[in-house]
Amino acid sequence: MLGVLALAAALAAGHLVAGFVGVNASPYLAVGNGAIDLTPVELKDFAVRTFGTYDKLVLLSGMAVVMVLVAAVAGLLSRRTPVPGLVAIAGFGLVGLVAVYARPDLGVVALLAPLASLVAGVGTFAFLHRLARRDAAPDAAAGSSRRTVLLAGAGVVAGAGVAGLGGQLLAGTRDAASSREAVGRLVPARTAPMIPADAGFAKLGTPEFLTRNANFYRVDTALTVPQVRTEDWSLRLHGMVDRELRYGYGDIRDRPLVERTITMTCVSNEVGGTYVSTANFVGVDLADLLEEAGVRPGAEQLYSSSVDGWTSGSPVAAALDRACGAMLAIGMNGEPLPIEHGFPARLVIPGLYGYVSATKWVTDLEVTTWRARQAYWLKRGWGREAPIKTESRIDTPKGFETVPSGKIRVAGVAWAQHTGIEKVELRMDDGPWREATLSHEVNLNTWRMWWLEFDVAPGGHQVVCRATDKSGYTQTEMRAGTVPDGATGWHSIAFTAR
Ligand SMILES: Nc1nc2c(c(=O)[nH]1)N[C@H]1C(S)=C(S)[C@@H](COP(=O)(O)O)O[C@H]1N2
Ligand SMILES: [Mo]
């Protein structure tokens, strides 16, 4: 119990100080963030695939369980002498210090948080241990001093609760929600064309053509969503350019804004997966900003950084290609960017997986070469060039669903951003490939829905889909995993007709 109490005191003290020096300095979160950065790529990919958006909750809970166990065992080993407990708590403190020190987005002041943890943890353990030992001494007035230990323990719990909560409240006062509300309506000078009713087949079980912000898939390494207020935000554009530029939020907002309908996809999307969503993004042309700065010959990589230290490398050519429509986006589906999708500003480069194109909370753009800089996921084994692969997915029927026999409609979605979908074919059991009806094409950078009717007899069935894009490429049947540059293979669904 003493070990766990000391741990609670340590975490709470660190969290309180982090309320002043930046929430990511909280040792618990810093260690979690450090764990994310150190996680081998296969494990990270497994976590994203298995736990989805809950991957962070799973990580934090796992850490909590491990810490409580270690603290409890250290406490048990400290019956005679406080040394094992002190060593364990100090060890935790050191791990916290290293984790905060290693964060690219935290300064030296942030070290105060893990230091507070170290002092509070060690101090609490030594103090409670002394009280408890006195209690166990042969000449102790047993009852009264046991009560003292329990009272002290309760005091620690209360103090830790207040400190932890205080840290949480302090961090909350710096959140970006009110700044986001103050942005008001973003009115694009050029709006995206209206989405026609026949762009989707939601009634047949495919997704809505435009994904609501709340349903838009989310993938990032941030344990706590970065809180950046517009008044604190700026974007530095530098490197191999004729003149370095810096934009404030107003500089971007006051330019003529464009709106584009774009389907984003994550490289961690498995065949049949859901890390694909579509939105109307509002912002400015990345090519405009790059041309203002003047890109020098020999530039290859647009290396972008987020406030939280995450980085991404995109081909400069893709960012400059006006036909591609790369953006610095500040709005999404008629609202300022949601905080978890990168408020105040993010990159969106159609046709490339998110990790090489879609930096959220972006504050720095460096025009450089591939040799000079290596972005976050590149260092961890993912590919440098990562165009989105042509894919298709069956949404109805669901896997292992039972449907009435007779006429059934199979429906789904396909995407080949930048190239466009030419056709989607389906094969039921060992029948011939048949072409599905495609939805209205909104633009080449968005997904397309499809459906096809089959007559199915009672019994088990298997339906497979494959898309062909406008370059003439048909999805390969060869199954490949997501690492290093995106999964391949045909999506198939097994179902039963009754
Ligand atoms: N700052 C930051 N930006 C990021 C990431 C990240 O981890 N940190 N993840 C990228 C990845 S892998 C993807 S797929 C997209 C997802 O964007 P979304 O969460 O808005 O859907 O954001 C990209 N931008
Ligand atoms: Mo991603």
From TrEMBL:
Keywords: Membrane, Transmembrane, Transmembrane helix. The keyword DNA-binding does not apply. The chain crosses the membrane at residues 57-76, 83-102, 108-128, 149-171. It comes from the Bacteria. InterPro entries: Ig_E-set, OxRdtase_Mopterin-bd_dom, OxRdtase_Mopterin-bd_sf. GO terms for molecular function: heme binding; molybdopterin cofactor binding; sulfite oxidase activity. GO terms for biological process: sulfur compound metabolic process. SUPFAM superfamilies: E set domains, Oxidoreductase molybdopterin-binding domain. Residues 223-377 form the Oxidoreductase molybdopterin-binding domain. Gene3D superfamilies: 2.60.40.650, Oxidoreductase, molybdopterin-binding domain. This is Molybdopterin-binding protein.
